[in-house]
Amino acid sequence: MQNAFDKRKEELKEFDDAMEKLNLKKRDKTIVVKQVPSDLMDKCNKCGRFIVKEDLIANLMVCPYCGHHKRLSAKERLNQVLDPGYEIILNNIEEKHLDFPDYKDKLDKAREETGDDESVVCASGMIDGIKVLVGVMNSYFMMGSMGSVTGEKITRLFELGNEKKLPVIMFTCSGGARMQEGVISLMQMAKTSEAVGRFNELYIAVLTDPTTGGVSASFATLADITLAEPKALVGFAGKRVIERTIKETLPDEFQTAEFLLEKGFLDAIVLRKDLKKKLNLLLRLHNYR
Ligand SMILES: [Zn+2]
User: Fold this and answer.
1) Distance from the CA of 56 to the center of ligand 1, in angstroms?
2) How far apart are CA 274 and CA 255, in angstroms?
3) Cβ atoms within 10 Å, residue 188
């Protein structure tokens, strides 16, 4: 019996030596916490699940679990909707209403963070081969607020559409007027509405989350065809403000795209994956080639 034990011991020692030689022995017990690079994963802010960033991008920034349409930057939107090779236009219009304290700093910071010059980015390009002018608002740029340059760019986009006989597609996304510009900002509602009024070609608005305030109360809701992304928040004043004013509880789905579609305010809700195809179809139906 003792022999058997000794033999076993010897075998174990041999095994240990071999492991040592191969550098496999004594695994370090201390656990090193490795940080997952922050740009590798993203969290859905609707269902809370983690998604590999690459998968999310491949899925057009729509959560594969719950279908939540994440907000896009202006460039992400342009890349999704337009054919490659589009041109950014109407850039670098000078901002002249900078008197409000810290406004210029905020504007500079937003420019640095987004790489855009304003809360709306305009582009000339093609949707599956059909030439269009597109304006995309960026909620990451001072909450997509409408200042004087925003209004000027949108106005010029519609004027360019008239001149070149091209349709205009606006992707709206805004917190409303830019308070730093006071009444000048409010004036953009009249100015952009007037530009839409003078526009003779097809105007399609795609309301994305969130389209509120002065933008929803002007050019966003004056289109020939009004589309929206699923569950997009569309409204003028916030729900709580209205509830406090009218002293009534509003339904849960109030100010969602689905609610507005039911009330006849929208023409259709389009999934992001179908948007480019749907826009192309609408353009062809209106004889744009
Ligand atoms: Zn989700």
Assistant:
1) 10
2) 23
3) 26
